[in-house]
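Researcher: Next entry in the queue.
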Amino acid sequence: MEIGVVELSRLQFAMTAMYHFLFVPLTLGLSVLVATMETVYVMTGRPIWRQMTKFWGTLFGINFVLGVATGITMEFQFGMNWSYYSHYVGDIFGAPLAIEGLMAFFLEATFVGLFFFGWDRLSKVQHMVVAWLVALGSNFSALWILIANGWMQNPVGAKFNPDTMRMEMTSFYEVLFNPVAQAKFVHTVSAGYVTASVFVLGVSALYLIQRRHTDLARRSIAVASAFGLASALSVVVLGDESGYDAGQNQKMKMAAIEAMWETEPAPASFTLFGIPDQETHETHYAVEIPYVMGLIGTRSLTRPIEGIDQLVEEANQKIRTGTIAYDALMTIREQGADTPADVRATFDRYSEDLGYAYLLLPYVDDPRTATDDQIALAAADTVPGVFPIFWAFRIMVGLGFMFIAVMIFFFVRASFYRMQFPRWSLYFAVAAIPTPWIAAEMGWLVAEYGRQPWTVDGVLPTALSVSHLGVWDLLITLAGFVIFYTALFIVEIGLMVKYIRKGPHQDVEETEAWMERHTRRLRAGRADDPISEAAIQAE
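Model: Structure for this entry, 539 residues:
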């Protein structure tokens, strides 16, 4: 197949989006972990917690800056590569993007500066508040972006206006509280918390292997394992919610995740292992677990999950009714205000299927003249690539359960075994550092690739969303992004490795003052906590 504008536009956006998301989850999670550590410092006054806050805060800052640099280029692409998409749904999609910039990003960026340069200018409590505002801004950024993305998955609160040829918002409340968007937000944020926990766990394990900064490392493992365990459990629970929403609103995606070619009697089983074959509509070597997929997709034992073949037949019918809406739309465009009322009534009746008529445009210039064979081809296009979605989902889920096991192990060792960790577990924690990013990227592959052939599900096909650019325009900009992002990746890794090797900076004066103060209190018998002489020396 010849690579064209649509494929190159998709490739460019996929590359920039997935690269940008390398930074997002660590920013989300580290912001909360750093704020938590500073809260402990304010409550206890122990310098070790200030040292931890500054060290992990430095790594957060490096990641934050590069995340901003990669995120800005993504927004440019909406006007550059996806201009028709921006025109068609800009009234809805643009609102949360604007709010994200005005409300969340400015909040986050402003207080990031105060966090790094306010240590000696703000009181302890004031600086702690700043740290929490940075975390709040980070999470608000994710909220508004995911509201926009959730609307693309489940376009509620909007209606197509045939007179303006654009989607227009009818209810901001419905867009804001879109169940798909809310489920995506909490699931994505929890995944970010797991990412940061695994990162902190792995770097701390490296310090223990090297026998450096052991006190900071052990305390960091204690915090990361507790935070990570709660987050990993929530990811699984909230992932189940996302699966249920997909079963209600994106049935083709759910069928592709399971490689369910034909509708099975309820409750459907979950295919633990298999090799989907999209040509023969079979899944070879399938190993199934009864009932599980039915519970995930429908939360019942009686409702079936529709199979791919049945959904293709439904798409075939929607394409036919969509052409009726398309015919009425063309009449409205030609006659404008003079359009007969019965034509507008016909359009209103079938307008929900208008997007399906657009699926015919790659095969015929006028959907009204499409043949049965062309309609069948367009209906078959509603099936995304089953094999990559099937396995991306299973990799993501498998890693999710691994995170739970890892966090339980380190939490138990930190809580009940005096923070003593077997050497093999430390090496495993270091090796596991990349795995949350793999899980996150697999999750986005399922979400975005599983939505194809739609940019906005059921409303606007991807093939219709692109700008009128030439192939060479896209090849040149794609090459530019690859070079630019590769340079940023090298900078990111270099800075992270540099500061991890350097380790935390110890404030000698504050530590000595703290030790002297608490030593005097212990010897005077006025200590307010069960701290020993040995513990003071360890601090």
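Model: The longest strand covers residues 270-277.
Researcher: Noted, moving on.
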